[in-house]
Design a protein that fits this description.
Layout (H helix, E strand, L loop, with lengths): L1 H21 L5 E3 L5 E4 L2 E5 L9 E8 L7 E6 L5 E7 L4 E6 L3 E6 L5 E3 L7 E4 L5 H12 L4 E6 L1 E6 L15 E3 L7 E5 L4 E6 L11 E6 L8 E6 L4 E6 L5 E4 L5 E5 L2 E3 L6 E2 L10 H11 L7 E7 L3 E6 L5 H5 L16 E6 L13 E3 L3 E8 L8 E11 L6 E3 L2 E4 L9 E7 L10 E12 L2 E15 L15 H29 L7 H30 L24 H22 L1
Helix pairs in contact: 5-6
Length: about 600
């Protein structure tokens, strides 16, 4: 029984050892790596320039190694109208096939020889400089500008894709290190770069899993110190290991997770990301096991050891069967973000709880406070925070108006919004303007470890409506009890003054001797008192009923609800009033008589 247990334990140890060894692989020399394409970062530029006659201006600088055949093919049968300037310091031969819209310019002293199947008259020889900066300056003076400058080493075939060569952005051609494969208007095929590659893949892989793990290792004795990396497949993890002082630059890190013992430079921020781990050994097995441990994986897709005589190289990571799609990508759309920057989006809300997003077609009242959330995608394992620098609103009407929009940062925890920032603003300053359609645009920075770089701009449209204005209320007179008593007392005084006036008229006119003056004089004080009391009654009535609150104005002037006085009094009221007025008017007449 013990023998069977011993045999079982031995078989189990062998199986575990075999499983552990299958996780790694031994690299061997290869001439063609199916996963990694090695190129160079060479001098060039790409602009939006086009001449007045709708022709582009392209400069092609050809460099060849001493061991290369120095022959290339130029195919421009479906090219857009262009002026193509060819320059090289080597004696090269080119077989060209071009259409009538392409004009080729060669230096008088150049030893470039172009061969064609038929005679063509659109190849011109002129004197121009060969140094890069001077050549760009000469082309700018002759044609007005330069659409592109491309340096190619060991060119085999270059052809036009038939698309425009211009791109959004600056019209000035500023030379810098670039990836020529990004230029969608041309397809370039070159001889392999003279470099030593070792590569391998483990035996056990899961073909159903779309995620990939690639390992790039630069030995300690290699000359490479600056590597630009473009990943052309999604769901990719990359472990980068190099000697101390190596810098890895990601050209498109949107779909990549990465880890490295060196500094990493992202195009979205201007500072370097410090190493995520320490690995001094360049042994293949040590690097492979570090990758499996770092990404918590059971296997990897490929392992590559890279050696080159140049200190600056470009690595294109992806399957070779998708290279055709990579070399000639579609024309990139115009966005508010600079190329290769993290895509941003802005969402508006009506409340500070950020639960009611505004639809793009919803109109916003200018007297309401608006809440915004700006978010983006992660870049690998690096957590970048978004910082809003400034916001503007621009009218989209015939008379453009631009206004700076003050904003207030809103609280936002890492759990609720890990890749976004929140702010709020008011549109009060837009109430005085007639335009209703605006573009809201904010400039942001992307920050990592308290260091920030330009993150581009994020924009969305906004339709603003004015709030409903209430018409001004009419003046409201409120007569309380003191006011009513004051009006009544004033009416009484007016009545006394009127009777006094009648008394004065009687004294001045006098009475005939035949009349009984004593009876009239005796009744006059009573009449005066009666008239004064009646005037006071009318004044009190006017204060109570003739000046009521206006129900239509919506502004009640007293606590009690009063009924309006009817314009047609009852017959009894008419008769009493007429009798009183008649007696009042007849008194001076009878006295006068």
């Amino acid at each position: 029984m013990k023998a069977y247990v011993a045999w079982f334990a031995l078989l189990l140890c062998v199986a575990v050892a075999a499983s552990a060894s299958s996780q790694t692989c031994d690299p061997t020399e290869v001439n063609d790596n199916p996963w990694v394409y090695v190129s160079e970062m060479l001098i060039g530029c790409w602009t939006s320039f086009i001449t007045e006659d709708k022709a582009e201006v392209h400069i092609l600088n050809l460099n060849f190694a001493a061991t290369d055949a120095k022959m290339f093919s130029l195919e421009m049968t479906n090219a857009k109208p262009m002026n193509l300037i060819l320059t090289s310091t080597d004696a090269v031969y080119g077989l060209h096939t071009i259409n009538n819209d392409v004009n080729i310019y060669i230096n008088n002293d150049s030893i470039i020889t172009l061969l064609a199947n038929q005679q063509q008259d659109n190849v011109h020889k002129q004197h121009f400089p060969t140094q890069e900066e001077e050549l760009v300056k000469w082309a700018r003076q002759k044609f007005g500008g330069v659409t592109s400058f491309t340096t190619v080493r060991n060119l085999k075939t270059i052809s036009s894709t038939g698309t425009k060569g211009t791109k959004p952005g600056s019209g000035h051609c500023i030379l810098r290190n670039e990836d020529a494969l990004e230029k969608h208007f041309m397809k370039i095929e070159t001889a392999p770069l003279a470099s030593s590659l070792k590569s391998c893949s483990p035996q056990q892989q899961n073909p159903s899993d779309d995620s990939e793990l690639h390992i790039i290792n630069i030995p300690e004795n290699a000359n490479i110190r600056n590597v630009s990396l473009r990943v052309d497949s999604k769901k990719t993890s990359v472990l980068l290991r190099g000697p101390q002082g190596t810098t890895w630059t990601f050209l498109n890190p949107q779909h990549t997770q990465f880890g490295s013992n060196n500094d990493i430079l992202l195009p979205t921020i201007t500072h370097k990301i410090e190493p995520l781990f320490t690995l001094n050994s360049d042994n293949a097995e040590d690097v492979q096991r570090k990758a499996l441990d770092h990404f918590k994986a059971t296997t990897f897709t490929s392992y590559t050891e890279l050696r080159s005589e140049d200190s600056m190289v470009l690595l294109v990571l992806g399957r070779k069967d998708s290279a055709a799609e990579i070399v000639t990508p579609p024309i990139p759309p115009i966005t508010t973000n600079a190329p290769h920057q993290m895509p941003l989006q802005m969402q508006l809300y009506t409340s500070p709880d950020y639960r009611s997003p505004l639809d793009a077609n919803t109109k916003v009242q200018s007297d309401k406070r608006i809440y915004a959330e700006i978010s983006g995608h992660t870049l690998g394992d690096i957590v970048l925070t978004i910082k809003v620098i400034s916001c503007f609103v621009r009218s989209t009407g015939s008379c453009p108006v631009e206004k700076k929009l003050p904003f207030m940062p809103e609280a936002c925890s890492l759990n609720s919004c890990p890749n976004s920032t929140r702010l709020s603003f008011s549109l009060d300053q837009l109430q005085e303007l007639t335009s209703t359609t605006w573009d809201l645009e904010c400039s942001v920075k992307l920050c990592y470890s308290e260091k920030c770089g330009d993150g581009g701009r994020v924009k969305r449209n906004l339709e603003v409506t004015q709030p409903c204005l209430q018409p001004p209320s009419p003046p409201c007179f409120d007569f309380g009890l003191p006011g009513v008593l004051g009006i009544a007392f004033g009416g009484f005084l007016i009545g006394v003054l009127l009777i006094g006036a009648l008394w004065f008229i009687k004294i001045k006119t006098g009475y005939p001797t035949s009349l009984d003056i004593s009876s009239t004089a005796a009744n006059l004080p009573g009449k005066a008192f009666f008239l004064s009391f009646y005037w006071s009654f009318l004044s009190f009535s006017s204060g109570s009923y003739w000046l009521p609150s206006h129900p239509s104005s919506g502004c009640p002037c007293s606590g009690a609800k009063r009924q309006p006085v009817s314009t047609n009094p009852s017959p009894s009221e008419n008769s009493s009033a007429n009798a009183s007025i008649g007696s009042t008017q007849s008194t001076p007449t009878s006295s006068m008589a």
